[in-house]
Amino acid sequence: MKFENYFDKQFELRYFETNKLGLATPIIILALLEETAADHCYSINHSLFDLLKKNVGWVLVSGVLKMDRYPNYKEKITIRTWLSSYTSIKGYRENIIFDEQQNIIGSAKGLWVFFDIEKRKPLPIFNDMKEKWSFFGEESIIKNIKKKIDALDVADHIKKFKVHRFDIDSNKHVNNIKYLQWVIESIPEDIVDHYYLHEIDGRFISEAQYGDHVLSLTNKNGIDYSFQHTIKVEGSNKVCATANTVWKKF
């Protein structure tokens, strides 16, 4: 693949970003992807803080992450990101994760909507942003991330959480990374201890608010080491997110 119109950011994995095996966690990988996207915005003079002053921002509505392996403590990685396509209000962000030898160890794809934070509704993307970003039509993952993932009504594994103040991000809702944390917490312990998250495919449906109690529901998917997930607000029919995960043995 010959790359065009992309942005690269390098990272070196720090101690607190790794698990007991010395490997980066899925939560950290998502955080690094988010940091790369933020720096890509900064590089075209539209930093997230500049956007906040105008009460606008980017909201992830669906996405997939696939990791063939997780980087080790002190390992240097490069995340390459680009926009593969966009409409007036939304765009597809592609990501490839390289190790120091330029081997691909992971990839991710997200559908992001430009958003009016106060009015809580989509907004046309600034023309200046589209001109400076341009786009590169290749996809990092061939996956339909708009396809619906059904919500669970009952589950074999359920965990309950309260939405705390520090769970809320600058867009005034629960950050997408928090949903992954809640999903992993409801995975059986034997899976988390002996397997790594190979793929997560998620949909963000509605917003959890500060003070809400949310339930993380998990069922086995019928396929070995594959699970279906739902995050919902306790005591209501409000579904915040749905996802499928696939796990592989370390």
TrEMBL record:
Keywords for this protein: Fatty acid biosynthesis, Fatty acid metabolism, Hydrolase, Lipid biosynthesis, Lipid metabolism, Transit peptide
Keyword Lipid biosynthesis: yes
Residue intervals of the Acyl-ACP thioesterase N-terminal hotdog domain: 5-131
Annotated ranges, domain Acyl-ACP thioesterase-like C-terminal: 156-249
Entry-linked InterPro entries: Acyl-ACP_TE_C (IPR049427), Acyl-ACP_thioesterase_NHD (IPR002864), FATA/B (IPR045023), HotDog_dom_sf (IPR029069)
Domain of life: Bacteria
GO molecular function: acyl carrier activity; fatty acyl-[ACP] hydrolase activity
Family matches, as Pfam families: Acyl-ACP_TE, Acyl-ACP_TE_C
Family: Belongs to the acyl-ACP thioesterase family.
PANTHER family: OLEOYL-ACYL CARRIER PROTEIN THIOESTERASE 1, CHLOROPLASTIC
Protein name: Acyl-ACP thioesterase domain-containing protein
Organism listed in the record: Mariniflexile litorale
Lineage: Bacteria, Pseudomonadati, Bacteroidota, Flavobacteriia, Flavobacteriales
